[in-house]
Amino acid sequence: MVNAASKRDVSKTTPMRLYLINPSNPFVSIVNVKESRWNRYRVWKPLSLMVLAGLTPPSWDIVIVDENLGMPDYPAMPRPDLVGITAFTSQANRAYELAAQFRNMGVPVVMGGIHATMCLDEVSEQVDAVVTGEAEGVWTEVLEDARHGRLKRCYNGGLAKIDTLPCARHDLTDKGYAFGAIQTTRGCPLNCSFCSVTAFNGAHYRQRPIDDVVREFQLIREKYVLVVDDNLVGTRSDHIARAKDLFRALARADLRKEWICQATINFGDDQELLELAARAGCRGVFIGFESPAPEGLVEVGKKFNLLKSRDFRASVRRIQQHKILVAGSFIIGLDTDKPGIGKCIAETASRYGVDNLNVLFLTPLPGTRLWDRMKSEGRIAFDTFPQDWKYFTLTFPVAQYKHLSLESVIEEMISCDRDFYSMSHILQRVSRNLWHRRQPLITLVGNLSYRSNLRLNDKAYAHFKRYSGRGG
Ligand code: B12
Ligand code: SF4
Fold first, then answer.
1. Residue 259: strand pairing partners
2. 372 pLDDT exceeds 90?
3. Which CATH architecture has domain 4-156?
């Protein structure tokens, strides 16, 4: 492969052109903006690329391309000197297409992110260089090597020190997003069996300095912000204390931002924490309940949810009392799940009182404990890689489930969604929130947006069933 950088004057003063690309996955219906106008609220910024841009010296001209906003006309764009591609597993196929396209033009391609880290050998065959782990420690070396035409095959970033991070480049993204994005912590001590976070970001919960977070928040132009942390408040008392300090600082800075985040259910345990979060602009939290049954929680390794013989409904209510909406996430397809699980999840979510429900198929993602187990049991049903990665969106049943066939697990998902998102249930939730003056309009928009996507899911399932008939 011709290395473009080697043919140029590589003196430090020559500006180099860098494209940072977030590939699309056409099966991720939620990001199909053209299919439904509600989806504008479901396209999220590729923060990884904004962080990389923040680490990039000024001698590089940077363009961030997010294919989820629409396909760019690459041939009409100026030729870059280096292309950096990020990818979740579900984006790997499109990432490889892009890599081939640019490498055929003689442009070197480097790929990083979760999929590159978990599937290093596969990715190495498709690109010039792979960055595994977090990029902070190695990115400037990659750029210098690219400038001098001496890219190595692999750079291992490991876990970064996040106490001195430069701010992400919030100025470089398109204006078409409804939400800005920021990260304040990395890592998760819980290590659930299906989740890649602990394998990738480590079990040690790392927190950015509060002043850095406040400064970066001030750079975000959108009023609404997604805090991407996997668990914004953490699990231990020192984590919670830091979260409170962060919320106090955000409130003091009077940013006038409204934000949503992810947390474990213990978010609802501490009234002071909730009060401070609301004052700092928290308007919604995404919580992983995972399973309606204690045995399910044991299976996925999330016994944390069972501590203190928790009353989920009371926890959800306490959060909502601070006008913070709760989106609950569950998994379908656990070994403990039997026919009827779809309806059971919908009823459980309604009983807990969540404002939105997101149910995903149990999916063995590479690098997780679930992957190791299902692989050793021969239960990864869609395993023609790399082609099949595009179905690893958690919205397709790619594994063999213990008590549910492919057809029936899809039926369970459909019955769950149809029950929770029936018009009558949506109206009940909206009226409840109207009564409590708890963002009824946002509840309505969120619920209708999800409901409108159910049609897209039906199309996607029909395609998937046809595809599964290939003998896969
Ligand atoms: C925000 C988020 C989303 C947003 C996406 C926003 C976006 N466009 O990026 C939304 C909500 C849309 C989303 C969707 C999905 N997500 Co998501 N998401 C996250 C989350 C919580 C944070 C990502 C983030 O911004 N991190 C902050 C940045 C700074 O970190 P980073 O991405 O890791 O980037 C660093 C390194 O990886 C590296 N790097 C990354 N890219 C590149 C590229 C180059 C060239 C280089 C050199 C380095 C590099 O450098 C960065 C700085 O250190 C992660 C969990 C996590 N901790 O990462 C899950 C996570 C990435 N999501 C996951 C999944 C499974 C999904 C879905 C498939 C299913 C779902 N419904 O959740 C969908 C599918 C999306 C798709 N398009 O196909 C999994 C991915 C596992 C895997 N093997 O793919 C994760 C890890 C969560 C988990 N529980 O396992 N997600
Ligand atoms: S699912 Fe959530 S709580 Fe469990 S390991 Fe992943 S980030 Fe942590």
1. 225, 282
2. yes
3. 3-Layer(aba) Sandwich (3.40)
